[in-house]
Amino acid sequence: MCYNRESIGRFAACLKLLGTACRFAAWALASTHKTRVAIFGGASSGDPALGVAGAPPSTVKLDGCNVLITGASAGIGREFARQLAGRARSLILVARREDRLAELRDELQEQHPNLAVQIRQVDLADPAQLQELMEWFDRENINVDLLINNAGLGDSGPFATSDPIRNEQMTLVNVVALISLTRHVLPQMIAKRRGGILNLSSSAGFLPVPGSAVYAATKAYVTSFSEALRAELHGTGISVCVLCPGPVRTEFQQVAKRPDGRPEIGPKFVLVPVEQVVRDAIKGLEADKPIVIPGFAMKLAMLLARLTPMLLLRLLLRRYSSRDSTV
Ligand SMILES: NC(=O)c1ccc[n+]([C@@H]2O[C@H](COP(=O)([O-])OP(=O)(O)OC[C@H]3O[C@@H](n4cnc5c(N)ncnc54)[C@H](OP(=O)(O)O)[C@@H]3O)[C@@H](O)[C@H]2O)c1
Question: Tens digit of pLDDT for each residue in 128-178?
Fold first, then answer.
C-alpha cells in the first residue's frame, strides 16, 4: 500500500475532525450533567439524588397510579383514559368540551367503581387558564405519576394562507402547554424518584411537511424536547417517552382542515387504529422505550425518512409541495 502526501493529509484532517467531534461530545455530556446538577441540585459526581450511581430503573408503574391526560375529550386522549381506567387509581381529564369529559367520566366510573375521575375544562391555548390549572394542582395537592401530554391540533394547507390565530393556537397547545405542564409536575416526580411523561408528537415531526409547516414544526419540537428531557432525567427513575403516530382516524383531520378543504388522511396501509396506537404507547412506556411509532408501515417509512440525505429530501419535498400547493 502506498501513502502519498495528499492521503496522509486527508487522514490527518479526518483525525482532527474526529477529535473535534469527541471534544464536542464530551462537552455536551459534561454540560448535560452540569445542567442536571443545576436544575435538581446535588454534587456533580454520582449524587444519589440524581440517581447517577445505583439509579432506580426508569419504569412506570401504571397499576394504582395517578394519571393526568390532556385532550381527553376525543380521539387518542379518550382512548388513553379508557385503556388506563382499569389500572390507574385516579384520572384527571383535561379539555375544553366539558360535556364530553363528563360523559367519559360517567362511563369510566360505571365500569370501574374504585376509580377516581376528575375533569377540568381548560383551554390550553389560554395562558391564564393553563396557569389556573397548575395553581389548582398545587391547591389540591394533586400528585401526578403519569403525565400524558396529548392535547393537540393541526392545520392542513399552505402557510401563506394560514390563519394566524390557528398558528398561535397550535404553538400554544402543542408546545407551550406541554412544556409548562411537564415543568410543573417534574419536581414532584423527581422527589418521588418515579414517574412517567408521555408526549404526543407525530411522524410529521421527523420531516418538514409542506402543507402542515407549523404543525410539523411543533411536533419536531416535541420530539426533540422529549429526547433531551429523557437524557437529562436518565437515572432519576423517571421515564420519558415520545409517541409518534402516523395518520390515525380521529377528529384530528376534521379540526385540521381549512374551511374550504376536505379532511385529509393518509393511504389506508399506513392507518393504525386508535386502540392499537394507545396499546403500543402503553407497552412502550412500560418498557421505557424512548420513542414509539405504531404500525410497521410507519416504522419503516420513518426509518427511510431518517436515512434519506437532506439534499434528496429537499428535492422530494419540493416536488410534493408544488404538486399539492394551492398558493
Ligand atoms: N390523529 C392523527 O392522525 C394524529 C397523528 C399523529 C399525532 N397526533 C397527535 O395526537 C394528539 C391527539 O390527537 P387526536 O388524533 O386524538 O385528535 P382529536 O380527536 O382532535 O383530539 C384532540 C384533543 O385535544 C384537545 N384540545 C385541542 N385543543 C385544545 C385546547 N385549546 N385546550 C384543551 N384541549 C384541546 C381536544 O379537546 P377539546 O376540543 O374538547 O378541547 C381533544 O380532546 C395530538 O397531539 C395530535 O397532534 C394525531
Answer: 999 999 999 999 999 999 999 999 999 999 999 999 999 999 999 999 999
DSSP for residue 157: S
| Catalytic residue from among 3, 215, 221, 320 | 215
Q: Biggest alpha carbon distance in the chain?
A: 80
Separation of CA 91 and ligand 1 centre (Å): 18
Domains and CATH numbers, the chain: 59-325 (3.40.50.720)
Beta bridge partners of 217: none
- Phi/psi of residue 48, each to 5°? -60, -25
- Over residues 83-94, the mean pLDDT reads 98
Mean pLDDT, residues 223-251: 97
Name the pLDDT band for 321 (thresholds 50, 70, 90): confident
Residue whose C-alpha cell is 398558493: 327
Cβ-contact 50, 40 below 8 angstroms: yes
Q: Which ligand 1 atom is the nearest neighbour of the CA of 219?
A: 47
pLDDT band, residue 265 (cuts 50/70/90): confident
Q: What's the predicted TM-score (pTM) here?
A: 0.85
3-state secondary structure of 51: coil
CA nearest ligand 1 atom 17, residue: 252
β-partners of residue 70 are 94
Is 206 touching ligand 1 by the criterion CB < 6 Å?
no
Substitution candidate for ligand 1 out of 70, 180, 252, 264 with most atoms within 8 A of CB: 252
| pLDDT (0 to 100) of residue 176 | 98
Q: Is the CB of 205 under 6 A from ligand 1?
A: no
Q: Which residue has the higher pLDDT, 42 or 288?
A: 288
Which of 44, 100, 40, 49 lies closest to 232 in space, CA to CA? 40
221 belongs to the catalytic site: no
Work out the burial of residue 208: count CB atoms within 10 Å of its CB; fewer than 13 is exposed, 13-18 middle, 19 or more buried: middle
